[in-house]
Structure formats: structure tokens, C-alpha cells
Design goal:
The chain has one domain (about 1-170). It is an alpha+beta fold and about 190 residues long. The protein has helices at about 1-50, 55-65, 150-155, 160-185; strands at about 70-75, 75-80, 90, 100-105, 115-120, 140-150. It has four helices and six strands.
Length: about 190
């Protein structure tokens, strides 16, 4: 009987210790995921702020290239690699843990708005800047994505030009409406 009670106690403590180990493992994984998400948000916001400080697509690309010389670049698409400690490394470094892909594009025909699409994901050796396709990113690898839009005219000091243009359009509209009123008044 004593041996049976001892076996039941050992079984109970074995199950309890297995549950405790699982709790610690899940806690560790959650902490790693939270740290990766935090790094992703900080790195993506950094690029968003950088692109918002520019006045052209070329200037944004030049700044990213200067700040991240290790980046893989192809046609306004930049791939930046990070190691486990969030340090920038070469894209062919075996220590790559995370990748940030940045795509710069212009929105409308007058090219007054810069669109920055960013994807931060777990390292995937099949992805390169040259043949990057956002559709190819699996949800399992994607940690964070961010799209920002930046209007150049509002940043580059052209506000006075926009106000003058809007004022002249308003003046032209008022002149046209006054002319129409005067011509209608003569016919009466």
C-alpha cells in the first residue's frame, strides 16, 4: 500500500512539473515574440519617419541606402537583415534572424505622394529585394507590416505655392461667376 501511495505522489508531481515547464516555455516564447514585435515596430517607424523627412523618392532611397549600406537594393525595394540582437547585418550573413523589406513608390501622376510599404518578418532565405512579392510572405513569417503615405508638397515648403494656387483658383472662380452675373444682368 505504501508503494502505491508513493507511485501516485510521484505521478502527481510529474504531471505538475510538466505543466509548470510548459508554462515557462510558453512564457519564454511569448517574451521572444513580444521582443521581435517591439523591434519590428521601432525599425518600421524609423524608416517611416525617415521617408517623411524627404522631398522626393530619390532622396528617400538615398537616405535609406546611406543609413543601411548592408541593404540589398533593387528598383526602390530595400531588404535589410537583422541578427538576433537587432543589429543590422549583411543579407548573406548566416546569423540573419529577421528581415525588413521596404518598397518605395509614388502614388499619383503628379508624384506628390510617397508610399512606403514595409514588411518585417522572420528570416526567409528565399526572399530577395530583386524578386520580392508581398503575396509570397506567409502569415507564419510576418511579424509586422506598415504602410505610410507622405505628401511632398506639404513637407518641402511649397505650402505658400499651394495657397497661392488655391487663391488664384478662387479668384478665377469668383471672376467667372461675376462675369456670368454681369452678362445675365445686361440681358434682362
Amino acid at each position: 500500500m505504501f508503494l502505491m501511495e508513493l507511485l501516485i505522489a510521484i505521478l502527481f508531481f510529474s504531471v505538475a512539473s510538466a505543466v509548470c515547464v510548459q508554462i515557462f516555455v510558453k512564457s519564454h516564447i511569448t517574451t521572444q515574440n513580444a521582443a521581435a514585435l517591439n523591434d519590428a515596430v521601432i525599425n518600421c517607424e524609423s524608416i517611416a519617419d525617415l521617408s517623411a523627412s524627404t522631398s522626393s523618392l530619390e532622396e528617400a532611397g538615398t537616405l535609406i541606402g546611406e543609413l543601411y549600406p548592408e541593404a540589398d537594393v533593387a528598383d526602390h525595394t530595400y531588404l535589410i537583415a537583422y541578427d538576433q540582437n537587432d543589429a543590422v547585418v549583411s543579407t548573406d550573413d548566416p546569423e540573419v534572424s529577421y528581415m525588413q523589406i521596404i518598397r518605395l513608390s509614388l502614388s499619383d501622376p503628379d508624384a506628390s505622394m510617397l508610399i512606403t510599404d514595409q514588411y518585417y518578418l522572420a528570416a526567409d532565405p528565399s526572399i530577395s529585394a530583386a524578386d520580392f512579392d508581398p503575396e509570397a510572405i506567409s502569415d507564419a513569417n510576418l511579424i509586422y507590416s506598415l504602410q505610410t503615405e507622405h505628401h511632398f508638397a506639404l513637407h518641402s515648403g511649397d505650402i505658400d505655392r499651394l495657397i497661392d494656387r488655391n487663391s488664384s483658383l478662387s479668384a478665377d472662380t469668383n471672376t467667372n461667376s461675376n462675369t456670368n452675373t454681369n452678362s445675365e444682368g445686361r440681358d434682362s
